Amino acid sequence: MSKSDKSAMPRPLSEDLAHYTKAFKYIASVGDYFEVAQKWTEETFYGHVVEKLVTNLGDGTDGKLLRVLGIGSGSGELELGFLNKLLTKFPKIQNCVVEPSESLLKKYEANIKPEHETGITFDWQNRTFDEFLENQPENSQKVHFISACNFLYYVKDLNEALQTLYDMLAPGGILLAIITADYTGYGKLWRTFPSLGCETAPQDGSQDNASPSHRIDAGYVRDALRQLQIPYHEDGFAGNYKITECFSDEESEEGNLALDFLTHTIRFRDAPSDLFQQVLACIKESCVQRGDDRYFQSKNVCFLITKPTESATQ
Hints:
single chain; globular
């Protein structure tokens, strides 16, 4: 079928977890997100999170157990870096990992090293965050650190999700949420074409009346935190993704997977022709040329939210 015959919007990527995982793994393989995020962890995480937790809670030399919750943990590349830093001050950690993709969760388990097994007890939850909440006892223990990297994109109600995460923190605890910036890369693309990947997207590809659930970016998070009157601190880092195949006249699995993840749709090449060309042009605007290759540039914002200690609220 030619592009001119294609009139229906492709389905949202969130409807097919297996395809989402495949597209995610591909875009991760052609990008430096994990490398720059790990550099941020090495240079910044300790001061922003570990030192503040020690100030708020005391260190773990007295046997204190640090309770950690990871949401949308993926294959654990980022969280294991966080845990390495936390272990330097808290030798006993209880880590609950919530991840709906079974294959990513298995990869996370495979990435665990002996030092993690010595100091960390893992609780593996192969389910969505909503399913996890449904199975939590009413008076479950509060946690000291929550990692929500690449999770907020998929919540139905951002304010409710942020309030829920904040309420799960113990006094002095810290929430780290990482999400794309609203003015570059992904954020710019999704704000220009808000129907991309939406469950309620109009089938003609128009941008009216589309659900915002998939296209949440740092701007929406800022607005929500202000509405909830939850103080926060911002930091961040940039990422680059080699997506040359997206612009090739010859269709390829690699190019399709990259387009599907960028647009959060399944088989975006089957989108209405006008929309396809407009989106491709917008993606190109966020690219830099290096030799024969194009790299998609997108910045990420790290929101650091600390729950006041009981003494601070008195």
